[in-house]
């Protein structure tokens, strides 16, 4: 995979932009899943790639950093085919029952002595969909009440290979055009707040990143690849115990829009399962590999109670992607990555929200550029950045990152919204059947997302309310009932 000429053009002509990430992920996937079916590889490519005669003569790009780590690996050593640096000691599994300090109601860690890799799909391979586990998850999705759009999967080859999907704006395909829905997390709300994320681990150099984050007292979100979580379960536990957020990044790192519904369910289901088996908790957030998401993938995520987290994108050519992943493969240089980083910083000051950047902990080079240069530079930034895991940058609690510890009263999860909506539809339909006056139910009709948690709180009022419906007695319209409807009108994330 080459660096596309459109990248060179955008870098040369639009100096304040960090360029879109899509093309480099051809390469990303090839490395991650080189042995998997070629029909699904290379699914993504730039949405617009005008040919250009721009050459490499302008490289290396210039950049200036406010600060760097005194023990940073020299830039001249952060290169393709760099000799492998010694790895830190890989953490062994923690004692069963240990709890993370930052989540008071967390369950204890499971006993990993019973964790058998043979009970999971093969590493970095798409999991089969005919296993009893996947069949169970498929059934759960079908019963979730979430309507999954019926359009067919994309074909490999990205935007140019899928012109109909690109043209169909109702699909809201983020990769080609940057369409996002309100259910996607793409920024942190507060200006100068950075929702720090690393993808594709846990991996051999992740301990170096964790050590540095400890030194400077930072916490991150880790989007973990399920098949690597089972390779390094002690490391995943250490991330979690240290207070970092753990989230889903699929089992084998495919482009989700190219998969069937069943294949997407298998990828997400196995990732949730391995994290639950290693940590005792199931994440509430996920990141689609390559950011490849459309409304079909979104619906399946919702049915599986996962909130999609992308990264900040303020224009087709200003995407907050460092491209750090591609130093390892020789597709880009560390100088280019730091140039991209500097452009991201330039864009940060122009937006009114905080931001989320795409970075990785899979390879030595990405960890070296993060710990040696990007993070020290960010810590020296003025005005100061507030650097947090995504869950915290959204003003949620650390425990809201997991189903078991989520505060349902303040953070209703995607699926609970649907259940309640289904419930209210049921109430509405039932009410119509009873021919009772419609007036008291009208306020619920425009509301698309509601919280089961709120409904649970209101259970003492809902139960007699349903009783009233069942006996065809007129609905209560007293002030407590009005307050009840108002309380149901809060929107889910
Ligand atoms: Zn990834």
Task: Compose a concise summary of this entry.
The chain has 493 residues and is mainly α. 35% of the residues lie in helices and 6% in strands.
Q: Top keywords for this entry?
A:
mainly alpha, TIM Barrel, 2 domains, 3-stranded parallel sheet, 35% helix, disordered N terminus, binds zinc ion, chitin deacetylase
Q: How would you explain this protein's 3D organization?
A:
Helices cover 35% and strands 6% of the residues. The protein is mainly alpha-helical. Helix 6 links the parallel strand 2 (197-199) and strand 3. Residues 1-57, 431-459 and 468-493 have low confidence and may be disordered. It contains 17 helices and 10 strands. The protein folds into 2 domains: 126-401, Glycoside hydrolase/deacetylase (TIM Barrel); 414-488, no CATH class. Zinc ion binds next to loops.
DSSP helix count? Answer: 17
Q: Per CATH, what is the topology of the largest domain?
A: TIM Barrel
- CATH architecture heading of the largest domain: Alpha-Beta Barrel
Shape: globular
Give the amount of beta strand, in percent: 5-15%
- Using only C-alpha atoms, the radius of gyration works out to 24 Å
How many discrete structural domains? 2
Helix content: 25-40%
Q: Which cofactors or ions or other ligands sit in this model?
A: zinc ion
Unreliable residue stretches: 1-57, 431-459, 468-493
- Distance N terminus to C terminus? 38 Å
